[in-house]
Each structure stands twice: as C-alpha cells, then as structure tokens.
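User: Fold this; tokens only.

Assistant: Input:
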Amino acid sequence: MKDEGYDIVVVGGGHAGSEAAAAAARMGARTLLITMSLEAIGRMSCNPAIGGIGKGQIAREIDALGGLMGLATDESGLQFRMLNRSKGPAVWSPRAQCDRFMYADAVRRMLEAQPNLFMRSDMVVDLLTEGDRITGVITQLGVEIPAKAIVLTSGTFMNGQIHIGDRSYGGGRMGEGASRGLTGALHELGFESGRLKTGTPPRLDGRTIDYSKLEVQEGDAEPVPFSYMTDALPEKQLCCWITFTDPEVHDVLRTGFDRSPMFVGRIQGTGPRYCPSIEDKIDRFADKDRHQLFLEPEGWNTHEIYVNGFSTSLPEEVQMDAIRRVPGLESVHMLRPGYAIEYDYFPPYQLRYSLETKTVRGLFFAGQINGTTGYEEAGAQGLIAGANAARFVQEKDQMVLKRSEAYIGVLIDDLVAKGTEEPYRMFTSRAEHRMMLRQDNADERLSALGAEMGLVSDERLKRMEARREARTGLLNAVRSTSITAEAANPFLASLDSAPVRQTDRISKVALRPEVNLGALLRKTGFSDLIPPIEGLERVEDMVEIDLKYEGYVERERGLIEKMEQLEALPMPNDLDYLDIQNISTEAREKLDRIRPENLGQASRISGVSPSDVSVLMVMVKSGRFPRLTVVK
C-alpha cells in the first residue's frame, strides 16, 4: 500500500518529535507524525519535571520560538521554583514539577489543534532514498509513505534493551516495545552508530511513606511561568521532600553488585556522567556516607512518587531492601522497580548545524538519536530540526542559532563540533556567553527570529515587543529620575545599607547589591514609574538585571564580536585535512571526520589547538590548501 504522501514525516512522538511536528506544521508544511503509540505522545518517561540548571533556559527558548513545552509545563505544573537565586542571574534556572498525565494531555491537545498536522500509529522500519535524497519511509504494516523530508526522533527505542538485575528484554520504555529496523537501514546508508545507556529510579506508593521523617521542599511564593504567554499559574502547589541514603543503604546495594548489569559487563553502552545510578555513585564516591534523594509527586490525582537520585538497574529485591532502609521509606510499597535501558544512537558529527545529516539530503535527526539526554535538549533539537525540514522543503536557507544567541545554539554546536560519546546534558557552564543568554530575556533574543521563520504568532511577537518597550522605558526612567537622600535613606536603613549624602539617580542607588529595584521604587514613592506588562513576570526585576550586570554584558559583546570573525570564515568542502602536514595528527583525523563548516566550529573541536587554527586560517584565506579528489 502506498500513502498519498506528505511534505515532512516525523518519526517518534516524544518531546523531540512533538516539537518537530508542531514546528514544521506551523511553518506551513503538510506534516505526518508517526509514533508507535498515540497514547504515549509527550510522555514524561523519566522525571516528571521540566527545567533545572541550564535546562530551564532551553525550555524558555523553546517557548520563545513558539514551541509547546512552556505552555504544557505551566498548564500541568505542580510546583515552580527558580534555582540558583543565591547566585547571579546568568545562572538562574526555572524548574517545574509537573503532573505527567496533564503534561502529555496538553501536548497531544496542542498537536491535534495544529493545522497541517496529521498523526498515525505505526512503526517505521525502513527509509526510502533516491541518490543522496530521502524520499519517504516504510512502516511495519507495509505502508510506503512518500515525503520530501524526514525527521527521526526515535528516543531510546532503537534496538532498546531494558535491564533489571540479571534480567533483560527488548523495550524502549517499561511496558513498550523497542523499534527494530531503522538502525540497519541507516547503516546501509553509510551512517555510524553507537550504544548509550540511561536509567530511571523506582516509583513508590506515597501512601506508604512516613513524611514526618522527611525534609519538606516548598515551591516559590511568587512562581515564574515557563511560557511568555502564560497569565496565570495554579494557585496551589504540591510539596516535594528530601531524604538521604546512609552507610547501611550502601552496604545493601553492594550485595547486588555481582548481579548488576553495569558491573558484570552486560551493559556495553556509556551512561550519563552527570546523572549516575545510585550503584555508580557509591562505587565512584566511596568516601561519601550519604547521598541526597528527592521524593517528587507524579501528579495531582495519583500517589505515585518519583525517587530522584536513586536511578538503578540492580535486582528488584536488592532495590526493595535498600530503599526500605532510607529514613521515611521503611514501610514503603514499590510500584515499579528502577531499570537501565541501552539504545542505539548516531554520533552527531554526522550532522550539519541545521540537524540535517551530511550523508542524506532531507534527513534530519533530533533528540536522543544524537546522543543527548533530557526532555529539554530533545525538545530544542526537535524544534530546530522540524523548522529546518520545513525550510528544506520550501527551498529556503536553514535556521541556525549561534552560541552567542541561545543555549540551543550551544547545544547543537557542542554536538556537531565535538560529537559525544556519552549522554549529553546541558549546564550553564557550557555557555561561555551565559550572561547574555539568561532565562528572562529569551523572548527578546529569539521571538523576532521565530516570527521571521513562521514559528511565532503575531500575538506572541506583539507581547514580546510590548515587554521590550516597557523594559526600555523603565530603564531610561530610573536613569533619568533622581531620588533625594530624605526619600532614600529610610529604605536603605531598613536594609542596613549606608545612607546616601545627596540627591542621586535612582539607577545609581539600585546598583547596591542589597537593593531590590522594585522594592526601592515602591517604598520611596516611585511606583508610578513601573509600566504594566502582560504575564506574571515583573519588568522591574528585568531592569534590575540590566543595571547591575551592564558591564559584564558589554564585555561579553566584545568577546562575541571576536568569535564571529572566526564563524564568518567558511571551511572549503574539498579541503583534504589528512594531507595538511603542519598540524597535529589528532587534529587532522578529527577535522577529517567532522569536516567543520567554518573556522569557529573547527576551533571548538577537541584536539584542535590554537596553533592548528592559525594554520587553517592562513591556508583558507590564501586559498592554498590540499584538495580532495572526491569531495566528501
């Protein structure tokens, strides 16, 4: 059977696939989303939360580009917290605990309301090509579906293998089968693959937990939404709780090491360095006598609890014995054991910055297939891949975000320029321009570009422009308005801050670390300077950041200008890196494998030294370099 065909087929309905399909359809492409289970669309298969350090910035950028994640988070949020408040605003990161059932429902509802978007429950087992171009897919039901572009977002399903103790079986998630066939199809097209591993902790029955022994973790009193379009959040928030392992728990866990699939060698894939299993923690950090655990609710209408920090693939009876020795969990009932899952991925040096593959035109990869971990990293890649698939079909230039423009740009550049041999996750430390890439200004950085691409609605763009106008207006007002010593000093005294001796600009008084601009304006009779804006965020908080970090921002702008000089120098497609004699052997091999698009990308490849970059710059600018006989 042959289907009528589509502009774009998106394979997989997780966070990457949902964002990819929605983005492509918003841009006018006739799009089909194929997923093994329509009921699993948008499912939070691991932690029921969005955001966190670095990840929160990505989620806000997805929203600024018209994506689904922020809206679904605000609609389903159980608890909202802004992390890193004790540090500078460059690393403030929003995080929300979500009702995982409501989140998936919200994503599915938004997809079903999207014009140009269709869905099908099926499994893709093969790819159709003509020459170096993709032309469609074949499903396990034997249906041939023509398409001008394909976005693969297969998550952990490609040859997925679940491990619990000495037992293992095929599956992409607990209770869901693995996807077969695509890895072989991609190998036939010349792609290289590898194996990665991730894991998930046990789920507990909250009715059997002794909360009196746990430390309570409340949400923020004034929560900040993820979406710039959200005007109200749930009035009620749920608590999370904190407890700790101890040496007795560790001793029990060690009794299962001889049946651990990770320690006995049955798991070959590399796991996430920054989110290790509990057995890996007590093995690698044997000097620590306890590890923190967060008990997080899964929803409003369920007692299911997620044990953040206790990811494991040890035998179920060992998991049960150990977890019942944790304070507060002595009588707990386990709803589901933790498990590890191995799956195929395709090293991302095989991609362009657009997330189109270098080998096959019109074929895009997004999410865990590229070696990343996390809903936010997957959603960001999905949005970019879906948008660029639409641009490819429309024969338009691809949308590529720079490292200086977005965390999404950092994410994709890290993957393409450096590749990854372990599950990649985002941290604020990965972004060298993080003072510019704050969570509060994602809409000002990206929404205009999103509107230009057809991703962002007129309503969203107008709201961004109004926020920017209000921000600029208040900034100018506090710089031009003076406050007397008589008005300022009582407020400063309440903060144990030194008094001012004379009338001065409000902006200067607000530069003091202990002074909050909003409180200063309200307590001293200048609240009329604060313009109203739509949404729950306060414009005075944004302006305070602008004032206090202006010098840092200007310094970063200078660094960005220098880096963009390297980004502007494209690397020739026919440059024969292996024949360059005056750079290191490691640099020659990595440059040949990755084949960077510009000198900036080349400079960020591990093993390529500054002196190697200088050699490349001279060669490319002069036009004298060894050339390939056959262009890769």
